[in-house]
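One-letter codes give the sequence; the fold follows as tokens. An example follows:
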Amino acid sequence: MKFTKMQGAGNDFIVLDNRSGEIRENEYSALAARLCRRRLSIGADGLMIVLPAQGIGDYAMRFYNSDGSLGEMCGNGARCIARYGYDRGLAGDIQRIETTAGIVVGQRIEENLYCVRLNDPTAVETEIGIPWDGQILSVSYMELGDPGIPHAVLELPEWDMMPEDELRSLGAYIRSYAAFPKGANVTFRKRLGRDHVKAVTYERGVEDFTLACGTGAGATAAAMRLRGEIRDETLRLDFPGGELQVSLSVEEDAVCDIYLTGPTVVVAEGEYLGR
């Protein structure tokens, strides 16, 4: 089984080209869980399976988390798959990718710099109070797309000074909070400047922190704009795996046209033997 390993800002993925239909759909989930195991297999945050387009897209992509659960979409994964699609001749500089969350438009900017348009926010709650350790945390919630990727975002200036286990426990608690029936990816942010934050995301389906989260970056920028915490239309986010940039627009008090830009890297190409 031939594969490509890619990463975007440290968010790493395995890509399989299944346009031939060699792998059956009912095998996808177990395959993702098997291939994504660190040390015991190839290892990755998620598996992306390339499929023929069913509609107006250039091709389709199905995304699975490392635990085998189906994900609606992944921002950094979409940037990586846009590069894969361009490198493989599946699409040109601008491409339309069919995902579970809808059509994602990707654009090649430079050889390894790619931009994708994230789905518009739905189910937006700008402020939800969540009790934790004797205080009430102010959390924003939204989904990107419909069906959407659920995200919870909160300002926590001390997050990078907290013991890792304590921060992980808080991430897991908010991820499964009762008000979020689908669960949520949880992004902690710390303001560094007018249009600059430091962030880390506890990801649903990985059940741990990842080095970056593209849709988490988009949700963070959208939440801060809706709460009036930023006025500019561009936000830089420093994740443990690197910097991402988000630009957006606001129309009639709603955020739209969210674009995620960042680096992509082809790490390796090979054949999975598993024997």
